[in-house]
Amino acid sequence: MDHNEFCCIFDTTQYTGTPDTEPCPNAVDVPALVREADRLCGAGLETEARDLLEGALSKARGAGDWRSELSVESELLGQYRRTGEADKGLRAVRDALELIRTHRMGRTVSGATVLLNAATTLTAFGRAFDSIPLFTHAARVYADNLDPADYRFAGLWNNMALSYADVGDFESAERSYLLALKTVEKLEHPENESAVTWCNLAELYGRRDPEDPRIGECVENAWACLSAPGLPHDGYHAFTISKCAPCFDYFGFFLYAEELRERAERIHAGT
Question: CA-to-CA distance for 88 and 46, rounded, in angstroms?
């Protein structure tokens, strides 16, 4: 996918209207599929999870089940980010946007969530500039339809901040991270999400000024979140560790990073 191709696909005026609501009699069982994919990822079997999802995508397309196709495409966006498969990831972005446009899902919360996922994938594969219109569109839809304390805003602000940072808009990035923290603090168990945001803030401050004293404060806050009493050491926690450990290493918190990696290894080994 080149830049011109992406720009031609994304046009917010094409994403509005009445959503297509015609049901499919041969729908894929997406919730069961996602549970199994999550189980495989939690066991460190990323390739197997990807293959499962790609097989389900082919099945949905063959059955004309566009809703399941869109849901599976969204799951694959995250999968391709984890496996670093840029070509597949960008192709999935294109296909997801085309489905949203064709079926007029752009003003729905579910459609906006897929747009958010697509934007995050663009940023992960070096297309941050292209991602910001998608984040902006998703933010407007969320604001029109969700309570401001809804947890989905946390993912929006965190990922939008990464894009702003990548294009050099550090002020907007910081503002988005702080909004993410305010959102996740209202969750019943905010520790994993908060840790990621603190690490992201540390990296943002480090990009602006490697001597910024707030860097250490952010890393210590992230460690406190990951060490919180009662925090489940499950597959999602292991995934969170994979996102946070490089930050601890980068800023010289080597003992923290080593302890986290050992914890993740124990989770994957089931011990």
Answer: 15
Asked if 174 and 224 sit in the same domain, the reply is yes
| 137 and 20 within one domain | yes
Q: What is the pLDDT of residues 114-148, one digit of tens each?
A: 999 999 999 999 999 999 999 999 999 999 999 98
**pLDDT, tens digit, 9 for 90 and up, residues 53-71:** 999 999 999 888 899 999 9
pLDDT at 149 over 90: no
Same domain, 131 and 189: no
Within 10 Å of residue 213's Cβ, how many Cβ atoms?
9
Decide if pLDDT at 21 tops 60: no
The parent domain of residue 179 ranges over 149-271
* 3 in a structural domain: no
- Judge if 160 and 140 occupy the same domain: no
- Domain tally, the chain: 2
Co-location of 81 and 14 in the same domain: yes
Is the pTM of the predicted complex or chain greater than 0.70?
Answer: yes
